[in-house]
Amino acid sequence: MNFIRKLISTFIGVGSNAIYQVILLSLISKFYTMEDLGVYAFFFSLSTIVFFLTNLGFRQLIVTSSIYHDTSQYMKVRFVLSIISMVFVSVVGFLLKPDYFVLCLLISSIKFFESISEIGYAYFQKYQNHNYQSKLLFFKSLLSGLLVYFLIKQGFTLTQILFFISSLHFASIVFFELPKLKEELVSLSFFNVFMLNRSDFEFVKFAFPLGVGLFLINLNLNLSRIMSGMYLSEFDTAVLAASLQLSLALTPVVTGFSQVILPKFSKLISNSSVEKAISYFVVLTIVLFFMSTLLMMGAYFFGEVILEYIYNSDIANCYYIFTVCLLGVSFNYIASLSTVVLTACEKYKLQRDIMLFCIVINLFLMLLFIDHYGLASLAWSFVLSSFLRLFLLYVYAGRTLISIRRLKSIP
Q1: Which residue from 251, 257, 300, 21 is spatially nearest to 130, judged by alpha carbons?
Q2: How many domains does the chain have?
Q3: Residue 13 CA: distances (Å) to CA of 10, 94, 104, 144
Q4: Chain segment 161-174, per-residue pLDDT in tens
């Protein structure tokens, strides 16, 4: 029952954040232009993949690492790397779309605050304080959604709205998150937070393989939006972004589910309960496959109606793209379980290599067909690379569990 309560608590927090992200795109599509939506989606995707690279999988390491336990070190390194990410995204945004530089800067600042908050969330998760983490995410998402709706009704521009959202994230960190971490961060100050020492660089080197693996996963999800923003029109980018965001609405829930069961699998494997871990793996795979099938059926029968209700008629007319995107995302949902198993077995490099291979295939297919098939080529390339990743991850996750079982059975 304790495990179920943690799972439900996590779902409430991350689920509310997922709903907020869909609502934000919905409001932008209804009250602003498709060009605004396309530019926002492009910078959001760019910021997401850059921050994922510099986040280095700290959230997973805080929970699972048997070597690094110092929360202040996680926070210090995260702060420095996030500053670098924000500067990089802003420079790239200025070079690619100078007219939207302020918009890009605000989106990257929101990502900065989110990356800082993630350290606190991981700390709460490690010490079983799931309720506090979920409450923070729930109320932050609720307030952000209400704030966006109110400001739109008052006639504020998209840039002004993003400024207020960024301020809300900053206030949450200062008043609700940092006070809970006060004892853990007592050694940090404004002056030494930028001073990385040899131990910090060794820590970055240790975390880098996992960070690259997670970055590559996110890159695969966002690569099509980046390619659309660079090669296709803002309208195409808006359609693809809206379709993918709705398809990815359950991703935070799946991520939260993965974060809850990761310690469970780590404990089972370390305690030589490999048979039980294999049983969990099989049962949860069936559950994820069943849920993904239901999602696809819903998209097939009601996709156009859902898109018009949530977004607008322009996006609804392209519901075929939404169905294809959802198929690719469903493969990623199912694959998330195998990544949990491989992470619990500390197979970070293997995950990275598989993801890198799939991204190369994805990029190759996009570049090969984008001139002839446009938006459809981006969506189908994503599907094919996602299926390839699902297949490879499950093959290696199964082989890893069987190998561990064989080793544990030797007297």
Answers
A1: 257
A2: 1
A3: 5, 34, 27, 14
A4: 999 999 998 998 88
The residue among 391, 264, 268, 385 whose CA lies nearest residue 335 is 391
| 153: Cα within 13 Å, side-chain hemisphere | 6
Instruction: Please tell me the distance from the alpha carbon of residue 334 to that of residue 281, in angstroms, as a whole number.
Output: 11
**Could you give the residue ranges of the DSSP H alpha helices within 232-345?**
234-247, 251-270, 274-310, 313-316, 319-344
Instruction: Report residue 409's pLDDT band, with 50, 70 and 90 as the boundaries.
Output: low
Q: In the structure, what pLDDT confidence band is assigned to residue 1 with cuts at 50, 70 and 90? A: very low
Amino acid at 391: F
Find out whether 33 and 311 touch, Cβ atoms under 8 Å: no
How far apart (Å, rounded) are the C-alpha atoms in residues 408 and 411? 8
Q: Which runs of consecutive H residues, i.e. helices, occur in 232-271?
A: 234-247, 251-270
Distance CA 319, CA 235 (A): 14
CA 4, CA 9: separation in Å to the nearest integer? 8
Report how far residue 42's alpha carbon sits from residue 398's, in angstroms, rounded to the nearest whole number: 37
Place of tokens 């040899």: 198
253: its two tokens: 């829930």
Place of tokens 């006639």: 155
Instruction: Give which of 83, 110, 114 is closest to 167, Cα–Cα.
Output: 110
State the Cα–Cα distance between residues 407 and 197, nearest whole angstrom: 39
Structure tokens at 1: 């029952």
Print the domain residue range for 367.
2-409
CA distance 386 to 391: 9
Q: Residue 294 to residues 54, 290, 333: CA-CA distances in angstroms?
A: 35, 6, 13
What predicted TM-score, i.e. pTM, was given to this entire model? 0.75
